[in-house]
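Researcher: Next entry in the queue.
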Amino acid sequence: MRLTVVGAGYVGLVTGACLADKGHEVVCVDLDEERVRAINEGRPPIHEAGLEELLARTVGSTLRASVDLEPEVRASDASMIAVGTPFDGREIDLSYVGAAAGQIGAALQGRNGDHVVIVKSTVVPGTTDTFVRRVVEEASGKRAGEGFGLAMNPEFLTEGQAVDDFMHPDRLVLGGIDESTLDALEELYAGFPDVPRIRTTPRTAEMIKYASNALLATAISFSNELANLCSALGDVDVVDVMRGLHAGQYLTPTASEPGPVTAPIAAFFEAGCGFGGSCLPKDVSALVAHGAQAGVEMPLLRAVLTTNAGRAAALVAQLKQHQPDLRGARVAVLGLAFKPDTDDVRESPAIPVVEALLAEGAAVTVHDPAALAALPRLFDGRVAAAADLKEAVGSADAVVIVTRWRDYEALPELLAGLERPPLVVDGRRMLEKTSVERYAGIGL
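Model: Structure for this entry, 444 residues:
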């Protein structure tokens, strides 16, 4: 198929490059000329494992980028909208989706033949078959189901492993307004013959995406709520509690091979300093707001967000139990990205942690293997950057782990040789509590 992907960010570029690697002719359209230039030169504009190799295989053959949408849509069999949908506290912002849908519709005005408009962006249930349908119909003068197909095809990509997630999916959710549209989606994913398909409506496909992220967010906040209780009770370690929880057959299914296999969802049942990123906070918030608009209160998901919002304060409180006065204290914060293996800092738990430390008067130094470039924008020169981990922790009074980068597994060895090792506040419980001389951890 000839596919135009509108938006060359994390989702759009990974999706476009992976489908190009499967043999489709893909054009990624983006307004950012530098991003387009980088893609066409085979340079990944984002930090994502495997993307550079993917571009090397596809750019110049089945993948290219452009800033001009209209001719690309006219020449393609399908258009995929993969733009941002930020949340303003009340509802998701559909302006980028609407702009893309309008431009696609305008391009379809003089086009004859079948064309499918696919929404890949995460949007609340009902968006594709109402808002997007209306915008495309008005701009094109055509009717959905007659002049063009309309679909919702949610993504289930984890930043840092998005390429691997796309190439080895656990499911394909195909939401189309009619059988013809669903058949076009099947053609698009013909390169994944053994992956289970869920053929459904656009509205159900949208709900599946939100339900999936809401479950993961709930699991994280559930674990953190238990961590608070463990700390209050005393002589209870949340790591041991979770180990017992993971051992249950629901989270540790029995495989055909000898020995148990831990289910992937077990990774979300870990206590820590909260979830961040571009998906979980926004999507759970948007789902709660959407429920309110429909007259349905969602107290559990509201509680999930409330619990998550308190994680930064809990981590700083853990530090203050050992050092009540942080004025002038040298604190090294390890991790700025919202998760390891990415440079994305959107809604990162590190941001409120650093702000809370600054409010207490601490002198903060931040280390991150990939995301330090965002530091000036986030904190306007109020914190120091350390490119070297040893440099970051060497003169610190306290070290706060926020992101579970594998680099930080070397911390015990780095601290062992120090005359006065700092307190380690483990916000991810990634270190053995006996591996450093002075240790404090969430839920301990």
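Model: The two ends are 54 Å apart (CA to CA).
Researcher: Noted, moving on.
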